[in-house]
Design a protein that fits this description.
Blueprint lengths: L26 H10 L2 H5 L18 H19 L3 H10 L8 H13 L7 H12 L13 H9 L23 H24 L5 H7 L1 H13 L5 H31 L4 H6 L9 H19 L5 H20 L6 H4 L7 H10 L3 H11 L1
Helix pairs in contact: 1-4, 3-4, 3-8, 3-11, 4-7, 4-8, 5-14, 5-16, 6-7, 8-11, 8-13, 9-10, 10-11, 14-16, 14-17
Bound molecules: magnesium ion.
Magnesium ion binds next to α3.
């Protein structure tokens, strides 16, 4: 049962190249399936989420992170009566525009582009992937996704002012994205905030005492659990507290969003689009907990000395390869070389690098230097 303000597949604005309807899959289900069968999606398996150089069989990579985001998003969408197929397609696509080596790779790539007066943006790169770089169908380039999925890829986590991005005009930049897309930014954050605490602990960069001192929501649950299971192994108490934090975020997100929708008087999708602000969000208390958690991770995990060497290596590899191919474009593979002239050379090099997995870029780097 879809809510009155949910996106409906039968009212989709459709695809760039019209296609006959599928006999039993709706357009968003087809889009979800196209994303899963894309090369960019498979590459997520070998792209860094947080950890590149330290190994555990249990750390998240960008693919397992993506699956976690899809799970959380489906749960929240079902509670709110939103379109689960659209949410799932958006969740599975949300990170396909990420370059190798996580945030460090993205930062290095963007810095190299800025030196040429350009920039790198992973949402816009994801759009280029689904519009052009995936080439698997006879009749068009790209995946020919529905408008709603492309719109969500562009707008879920960032507002692009219409005046600055005329090339994105078709995506209704002056209106809010549907709730299905609004959710994504928040479920993504729920997934990585909790998973990064888990992986940081697994990596022994974070310890329980540190997390208890830095994340009040975690501490509150940990105290309860200590009382009840004092003799349990620390790892299990940690897991249980983290699970309760995850549950707090997810439950609050749907309850608070449902309340906001009710208070706002929003009844239809066009009401959602025309509303003055995003309706998906946390209550003020849980918003504070979210922000504390994020801050804690920034200070204690992402910027930890333990991760510095792999971040430095990521930056060096991206920077050196970018300089190598911009100086010697004849060394680019033929498919990319052909694009020089149609697009500025730095953009061609950036697109090539952004598509790489961690392994592939290291191989290229070893060969080039
Ligand atoms: Mg993500």
């Amino acid at each position: 049962m879809l809510a009155s303000f949910a996106v409906r597949a039968e009212r989709s604005r459709g695809r760039r190249y019209p296609e006959a309807p599928h006999p039993y899959r709706n357009p968003f289900q087809r889009d979800r399936d196209r994303v899963i069968h894309s090369r960019a999606f498979r590459r997520l398996e070998n792209k860094t989420q947080v950890f590149t150089g330290r190994y555990s069989d249990h750390f998240r990579n960008r693919l397992t992170h993506t699956i976690e985001v899809a799970q959380i998003s489906r749960t929240v969408a079902a509670q709110l009566g939103l379109n689960g197929d659209l949410v799932e397609a958006l969740a599975l696509a949300h990170d396909i525009g990420h370059p190798p080596f996580g945030h460090a790779g993205e930062k290095a790539l963007d810095a190299m582009m800025r030196a040429h007066g350009l920039y790198f943006d992973h949402n816009l790169h994801a759009l280029r992937i689904v519009e052009d770089f995936e080439h698997r169908y006879l009749e068009f380039r790209g995946l020919n996704l529905t408008f709603e999925v492309r719109e969500g890829i562009v707008k879920h986590s960032h507002t692009y002012p219409a005046a600055e991005y005329p090339e994105l005009a078709e995506y209704l930049l002056d209106s809010q994205p549907p709730l299905e897309a609004q959710l994504l930014d928040l479920t993504d954050e729920i997934a990585y905030n909790t998973a990064d605490l888990d992986d940081g602990y697994e990596a022994r960069i974070l310890n329980v005492e540190q997390v208890r001192a830095g994340v009040k929501a975690f501490e509150r649950y940990y105290v309860e659990i200590e009382r009840q299971f004092a003799d349990a192994p620390e790892r299990l108490k940690f897991n249980e507290a983290l699970k309760r934090v995850l549950n707090l975020f997810v439950t609050d997100l749907w309850e608070h969003t449902a309340a906001k929708v009710r208070e706002s008087g929003v009844e239809t999708l066009s009401d959602v689009r025309g509303y003055g602000e995003r309706l998906a969000g946390f209550s003020p208390e849980v918003e504070a907990a979210r922000s504390e958690c994020k801050q804690f991770l920034a200070e204690n995990l992402y910027s930890s000395a333990a991760l510095a060497p792999e971040k430095e290596r990521a930056e060096r590899v991206v920077t050196e390869l970018f300089a190598y191919w911009t100086a010697s474009p004849e060394k680019l593979p033929v498919g990319h070389r052909e694009k020089v002239g149609q697009e500025p050379l730095p953009r061609v090099v950036c697109d090539y690098i952004a598509g790489m997995t961690d392994n592939y870029i290291l191989e290229q780097h070893a060969r080039a230097t």
